[in-house]
Design a protein that fits this description.
Layout (H helix, E strand, L loop, with lengths): L1 H16 L1 E5 L10 E5 L6 H8 L4 E6 L6 H11 L2 E3 L6 H12 L3 E3 L18 H9 L3 E7 L7 E6 L6 H4 L5 H18 L1
Parallel strand pairs: 1-7, 2-5, 2-6, 3-4, 3-5
Antiparallel strand pairs: 6-7
Helix pairs in contact: 1-2, 4-5, 5-7
Pfam families: Acyltransferase (PF01553)
Keywords: Acyltransferase, Transferase
InterPro entries: Plipid/glycerol_acylTrfase
């Protein structure tokens, strides 16, 4: 319940502060497991994506955000976010994400692993590729273009689903993950 109240409050605020345009939202399946993969240019990306997309989304968020007990409680219980340690493979985060996908949920992972300080796309970390291959869940690439200055244009383009089975053949190797990651970033690049 809190998620949807927060979603509409955030949606109301961002529509006042920015001129947001979203294209091809119909590319997001209405049900079934999916992995939302946007580029990451601002701290505002998660609330904007969560407010605009037509599904409840569970965000993988850096563990540092959960150190503050109040913020951690709000992120976890209000927004369904779960922590990931970025300095090493985090099996707990992977298991949590796989559980959400098994339950048919939408999760959001920023494939670059961190915000881009320059706005240029970075190489994909293996997380999104691994989860996509293990859960047989399509990846939905999203390009966020804009600078989040007051009343500025923010353009969000939703790409067509990328199905991991087309690339992994049921095998999850470093090469498969790198290949899927490269495809994800190429598709995001086309959307920018």
């Amino acid at each position: 319940m809190f998620y949807y109240i927060a979603k509409y409050i955030v949606l109301f605020i961002i529509k006042i502060l920015f001129k947001i345009h979203i294209e091809n939202i119909e590319n997001i399946p209405k049900e079934g497991p999916i992995i939302i993969c946007p580029n990451h240019i601002s701290l505002l990306d998660p609330p904007v994506i969560g407010a605009l997309l037509n599904r409840r989304i569970y965000f993988m968020a850096k563990s540092e955000l959960f150190k503050n007990p109040i913020l951690g409680f709000i992120l976890k219980n209000g927004f369904g976010a779960f922590p990931v340690k970025r300095d090493k493979p985090d099996l707990t985060a992977i298991k949590t994400a796989l559980k959400h996908l098994k339950n048919g949920h939408a999760i959001c992972i920023f494939p670059e692993g961190t915000r881009s300080k320059t706005g240029n796309l970075q190489k994909a970390e293996p997380g999104a590729s691994l989860l996509s291959a293990k859960a047989h869940a399509p990846v939905i690439p999203i390009g966020i273009n804009g600078n989040y200055k007051l009343f500025s244009n923010i353009i969000i383009k939703v790409g067509k689903p990328i199905h991991p089975d087309n690339f992994s053949n049921g095998h999850i190797s470093q090469q498969n993950m790198a290949q899927i990651g490269e495809i994800i970033m190429n598709e995001i690049s086309k959307l920018l």
